[in-house]
Structures are given as structure tokens and as C-alpha cells.
Design a protein that fits this description.
The chain is mainly β. The chain has three domains: 67-165 and 276-379, Pectate Lyase C-like (3 Solenoid); 168-219 and 228-267, no CATH class; 389-512, no CATH class. Residues 1-15 and 20-32 have low confidence and may be disordered. InterPro entries: Pectin_lyas_fold, Pectin_lyase_fold/virulence.
């Protein structure tokens, strides 16, 4: 009896020992499978700094760190409250607008700030739009208990922040770039002459479009569809806003990289001084819940954009939630520059689920940052529009119950980083052909870094750059149109990419 008991104990011990060995072995195998790895395009050197690996033409993945509010070189300020309002439960639009207008009469401080208007907890009914047209004004709530409701019918923007005027060229300052090829990622340009230029000058790096460039992209050959418009050169001249940071002879250095190669065969490039006198800055929208009234899930005669920015720079949207709008939580138009949108949510949009609706966080501007945002039931949750001049960044954003795809939407966005984006829908960078009125190639030098999706399409345009899927967790899809060049894929579905966030590592280096 005792001997049998000893045998049972020995067997039990042996079984547990074998189980432990198997468990440790499996754990070690899992660790091995999840070993850290680095991209062949951006590596971490022994000293901890990033090394960008150039191709034969000198192109690299760009530095995306200098985007958002003051290019990430300043922290969003905690602006002092100068006026406090309480909700009446009735139409509060006039009262809030009067407070905005009164604050606009106040002089700005040395930092361009006038002050913050605090909306206390309560429900504020807004039948029209609130308009901020002066710099230095912050509209702040007390979190989701401060609710602005877009009441009544009619498509409109609930909060509009916009200056006036337009970007203009300063006469007599245009200079030719002498480099035969200006690679993606560079910040240095050689000019015929740097005479008259100074460090700190605001300039445009101008990349003209040519007939042969559009022909080589095959965007003059888009398959006909309903209302299809072929691309023409006069519509695709690009203006990248930059600042001169150094001058050495006839070579200038600029604050942000080139995100589309400039080539002699396609018209080369130029620079000129610029001004945008009517553009406003230092505007903040904070800690608010915005809702729209609606009449049924497919109703479209109600609030369309919760927040709209245009002709504005160095401003922010923080901790804002929208519900039931037809188009967006935040919509940054073409002349929005160096805007940070963070910690915000776009929930339960109400509209038909077709084109031109549900662009939860839309960016048509340049040098803008969206971080730590969330969207549900949108169509294009993190998206750029036509002819978008980068760099721009979407970082650490999530999309659930997606009705369409994330990514550059149409007509050539340049230099966008999608870093740690997670969606149960698709992320696509492709030739969209005759969708819309001729979307064509959606973007170039677009980088997906450590993103997760159900399916991902990455195609390379025929000329002018590449698109990247680095450490992407998704099923690889061919895309809408077959026969397009396949984009650059690196270690699909492989864990352990380092740095896990390219954007955060680039920001870390920019501040050292």
C-alpha cells in the first residue's frame, strides 16, 4: 500500500515536472517569436538615436516630430479664465457669442492669449453657430457635464474658429531650387541665390505640377465614371509652408522635411517668402460635450461639424466629445496649420452611410497632429482630403464599428504618419480610380507604423514616392484596382517592432 502510494506521488511529481518544462519551453518560444526587431528604414543606433536609411536617391522616411501646436516645442497652456457663463436651458448662443466678441476686444498678452471663457456645467442650446474670429480665445467647459446642443434643423458647424485672408507670395522673392532631385526627408535646399533671405523667414516650398507628371501617374487616364474629372496641372501645384532655420551660402535649412520629391523632369521646385496676415492663432476648445438634435438615424438636416477650424495656426482641441453629428467631431480645413487635436471622441454619427458623410477626424491642412482620439460608427475616422501638404500625424487613435476605411482619402495627400492606429475596419492607401469624381491616387509617402486593422491595402503610385506598411497587424489586401504596384511591406503581423511608436521616438529626439 505504501509502495503504491509512493509510486503515485512519484508519477504526480513527474507529471508536474514535465508540465512545468513544457510551460517554460512554450513561454520561451513565445518570447522568441515576439523578439524585438527594427525596421530597415529607421533604426535605433547604439547611442539610442534614430538612423534613417536612405535609398539610392537619398529618400528617407521623414521626421514627423515637428507637427501640432507650435511644432511640439511648446506645451498647450492652461489659460486663465476671464469670463464665466452658466446655462439657462434655453437659447444660449447669443450670450456665448457676446462673451466671445467682448473678449476679442481685449489686448493679447505676450504669448498671444486673451483668456478663457468657462462654460459651467449645464446644457447650452445652440441653434446656429458659435464663431471665433480673433486670436487668443479659449472656450472651455467642465467636461461632459458641459453640453452644447445643436438644436433645430439645417446642416451647420456648431463651433467655427477661422481667420480671414489667404496665403500670399511676397513679390520679388521667388528663387529657383538648383538641386536636380530633392529627396523625401531632407531639410536642406540649394538655391540659385540666398540673397535677401534670413533665418526665421516664413517661406513656401513650391512644387509645380506638370502635364508629364500627371501622365506618368496615369491620372489623365482615370476610367470614366459618373462625373469623373481627369487631373490637370493647374490644380496640383503644392505649397508647403516652412521656416528657414539656417543659411550656409546658397543653401538653406528648413524646419520641416520635404515630403514629396522634387525632380527636374517634373518641374523641379522653387521657394518664396510668404505671409498670411488674417490667420488667427492661440485658440483652444476644451472639455466639452457637443450633441446634435436629429430626426432619425439617416437624418441629415442637423448639426454637421461639431468643431471646424480654418485659416488658423498654433491652436488646439482637447478633451471634446461629439455625438450625433453628420460629418465630424473635428474638421481641419486647408489653411489650418500646426493644430493639435487630442483626447477627443466622435460618437454615434447620424446620417446616411454613403459618401461625403462621417469623416470623424478630418484633416486637410498641414503640420497637424491628432493623438489619443476615439471614433465609433464613422466611415473615414482618421482621414486626409485632396492635395494635403504634410507632414501630418495620426497617433494612438482607435476606431470601432467602422463603416469604411482609414487613410488618405483622395487626390494625393503627401507625408502622413499613421502610428499605432487600431480599427476593426480597413486602412487603405491606394489608387481609388473613378470613385467620387475621380479620386485617383490617394497619397504618397504615407507611413503605417505598428497599426492594427482587419484588412490593409498599400499600393505605390507609379512615380514620385512610396507608401509603407511597417509592423502592420492585418490581412494584406490587393485593393480596389488590380495591377497597381504593391507598397512596401515589412514584417506583417510580427510583434516586437522597436521603437513601438516612431512618432514618440522622433519627438523625444527633437527635444534633446
Amino acid at each position: 500500500m505504501i509502495r503504491r502510494l509512493d509510486q503515485e506521488i512519484s508519477f504526480t511529481y513527474f507529471f508536474r515536472l514535465i508540465s512545468c518544462i513544457l510551460l517554460v519551453t512554450c513561454f520561451n518560444v513565445k518570447i522568441t517569436l515576439a523578439q524585438e526587431w527594427q525596421s530597415k528604414f529607421v533604426k535605433i543606433k547604439k547611442d539610442g538615436h534614430l538612423q534613417y536609411i536612405a535609398d539610392q536617391k537619398g529618400n528617407t522616411i521623414p521626421d514627423f516630430s515637428h507637427v501640432g501646436y507650435h511644432q511640439n516645442q511648446k506645451t498647450i497652456p492652461q489659460v486663465q479664465v476671464v469670463a464665466t457663463l452658466s446655462a439657462t436651458g434655453e437659447n444660449d448662443e447669443v450670450k456665448i457669442q457676446q462673451a466671445i466678441n467682448e473678449l476679442a476686444k481685449k489686448q493679447t498678452d505676450a504669448n498671444g492669449i486673451r483668456g478663457a471663457i468657462l462654460l459651467k456645467k449645464g446644457t447650452y442650446k445652440i441653434p446656429g453657430s458659435l464663431k471665433i474670429s480673433s486670436s487668443g480665445i479659449v472656450l472651455r467647459g467642465e467636461g461632459e457635464e458641459t453640453k452644447l446642443i445643436a438644436t433645430g434643423i439645417g446642416k451647420r458647424k456648431t463651433i467655427m474658429a477661422s481667420g480671414e485672408g489667404k496665403l500670399i507670395e511676397i513679390a520679388g522673392t521667388r528663387v529657383k531650387i538648383t538641386d536636380h532631385y530633392v529627396p523625401v526627408g531632407t531639410k536642406s535646399l540649394n538655391l540659385t541665390s540666398a540673397k535677401g533671405l534670413a533665418i526665421g523667414d516664413k517661406i513656401v516650398v513650391y512644387r509645380p505640377a506638370t502635364t508629364n507628371w500627371i501622365h506618368d501617374l496615369k491620372m489623365d487616364q482615370i476610367d470614366p465614371g459618373t462625373g469623373t474629372i481627369q487631373w490637370t496641372p493647374e490644380d496640383y501645384n503644392f505649397e508647403f509652408e516652412r521656416i528657414i532655420t539656417a543659411i550656409n551660402g546658397n543653401q538653406i535649412t528648413i524646419d520641416n522635411p520635404i515630403v514629396m520629391a522634387m525632380e527636374d523632369q517634373y518641374g523641379g521646385g522653387e521657394i518664396y517668402k510668404c505671409a498670411f496676415d488674417g490667420r488667427i492663432s492661440e485658440v483652444g476648445i476644451e472639455n466639452l460635450l457637443l450633441e446634435s438634435e436629429y430626426n432619425g438615424d439617416t437624418d441629415e438636416e442637423h448639426g454637421w461639424d461639431a468643431i471646424s477650424f480654418n485659416k488658423i495656426e498654433n491652436s488646439w482641441v482637447s478633451n471634446v466629445t461629439s455625438r450625433y453629428f453628420g460629418y465630424s467631431c473635428v474638421n481641419l480645413s486647408h489653411d489650418s496649420k500646426q493644430i493639435t487635436v487630442k483626447d477627443s471622441k466622435c460618437l454615434a454619427p447620424k446620417s446616411q452611410i454613403i459618401g461625403g458623410r462621417r469623416y470623424s477626424f478630418n484633416n486637410d491642412g498641414q503640420l497637424n497632429l491628432f493623438e489619443n482620439c476615439y471614433a465609433s460608427e464613422g466611415r473615414h475616422d482618421y482621414v486626409t482630403g485632396a492635395k494635403v501638404c504634410g507632414p501630418n500625424v495620426f497617433y494612438n487613435c482607435k476606431s470601432e464599428n467602422a463603416k469604411a476605411d482609414i487613410g488618405p482619402h483622395h487626390r494625393w495627400a503627401m507625408g502622413t504618419l499613421y502610428d499605432n492606429i487600431t480599427t476593426d475596419g480597413e486602412i487603405n492607401i491606394q489608387d481609388r480610380g473613378n470613385w467620387g469624381t475621380g479620386h485617383g491616387w490617394s497619397g504618397v509617402n504615407q507611413v503605417l507604423w505598428n497599426c492594427t486593422a482587419s484588412k490593409v491595402t498599400v499600393q505605390n503610385p507609379y512615380v514620385s514616392g512610396l507608401n509603407y506598411a511597417i509592423g502592420v497587424h492585418a490581412e494584406k489586401a490587393e485593393g480596389r484596382l488590380k495591377g497597381r504596384p504593391i507598397g512596401v511591406w515589412e514584417n506583417q503581423n510580427k510583434e516586437g517592432l522597436k521603437p513601438s511608436s516612431l512618432y514618440l521616438k522622433q519627438v523625444e529626439e527633437s527635444k534633446n
